[in-house]
Target: TetR family transcriptional regulator
Amino acid sequence: MTAPARRGRPGYDLESLLQVAVRLFNERGYDGTSMEDLSRKLGITKSAIYHHVPSKEELLRLAVDRALNGLFAVAAETESFEGKAIEKLEHLVRGSVLVLVEQLPFVTLLLRVRGNTKIERAALARRREFDRLVTDLVKQAETEGDVRPDIDPAVTARLLYGMVNSLIEWYRPRRGSAGTELADAVCKIAFEGLRTQ
Model:
């Protein structure tokens, strides 16, 4: 039995195309990157790109969905996680850091979208939905007496994820370093300041 023949130029499949596209979107901005730019970077024709995706917008959708799907998978895990709200919140933050480390270029792109296209607006709507999940967990943890009540839960959620999201600006993966060490550091700094005891 033989493997099915791969279509397109050897060495380029949808995944490798997406990786290069995301790198260019992050370097030049989505609006500042044309299919011609992508074609030149890959060394293939635009028609070879269109063999894999119908448009630049589809590349953007695939990229931001990868980041969002990772975050929402952690949120779904958190919902089934046994424990108090503060423990669920810490689980969500830790998991979010790990998604960011594993999908750094994709999360970076997600955090840079501004709503200029329908796909960007949909991504921003999903980000707001995620923010509401975080805020709800903060409120619940406050109600349970585990989070300081003197700060608005929405502000706490924004500050918490502001710290997580800032990692895209300075974090650079190194050989031998684990995302778990970074997640531990973020949780230690954040939750020692949030907890009431």
Remarks:
- The two ends are 63 Å apart (CA to CA).
- The chain has two domains: 11-53, 63-194.
